[in-house]
Predict the 3D structure of the following.
Amino acid sequence: MTTGVADGLWHEVHEGPAGAATVLLSAGLGGSAAFWSPQMEALTGHFRVILYDHRGTGRSDRSLKPDHSVAAMAEDMVAVLDATGTAKAHIVGHAAGGNAGLQLALDHPERLDRLVVVNGWSRPDPHVARCFTARTRLLEAFGPIAYVEAQALFLFPPDWISQNDALLKTQERHHIQTFPRIDVMLARIGALLAFDIDNKLGEIPHPVLVAASADDMLVPPLLSRRLAEGLPNATLDVVPWGGHAFTATVSGAFNVRLVAFLNGDG
């Protein structure tokens, strides 16, 4: 594994088998490369894997450039690809990262091979806006601790939370310690709520796996269905249970589908 920083973006590269295709993993709103820990063993056996912390989060530059947007997140992907000598890659993105992958497909189609969008969307949605408004008001009124403690309610199924309370408390302590600046988090949320490429989906010819969970509390699966219907070359895969973070709660099933798709099966 090698690590580096390019244009303020911390990244790491796992080389994988000789001659393997490259996969760039992009996390959701939290922005941390660690989000993809449940996928790493499955992916590194087949691919060269690039991880990075989003701008404003983790080990990357803790500030954002002016006029932050999902398009700016896509440009950050390009910066990481350039820094790692990667001409073209599969992109796997969760929520914010998936939306940025869609934007990359529009702005730099030559840099993308296959795209996986987990819990993404193509235009603003009232339910998502209500969830983010509630989280924003928590953050503004009570600060990062209240925001982080409430986060599990949006990410995980209720029974999973009941069975994993100790793990969640450990993770929450880490998330509180590494939480982005409040202005950065608010700008990132604002960028997601403003994202709208609904009338451009037909311009994305790449193979896309649109992955969702039927019980996602934060991003309803109807948004993934709309996304898949609008993309010319999309496959929709909806798991019956797992919540917004089903990449962690049912990682085994997701990893099998992910590797198969990236290898050209579907």
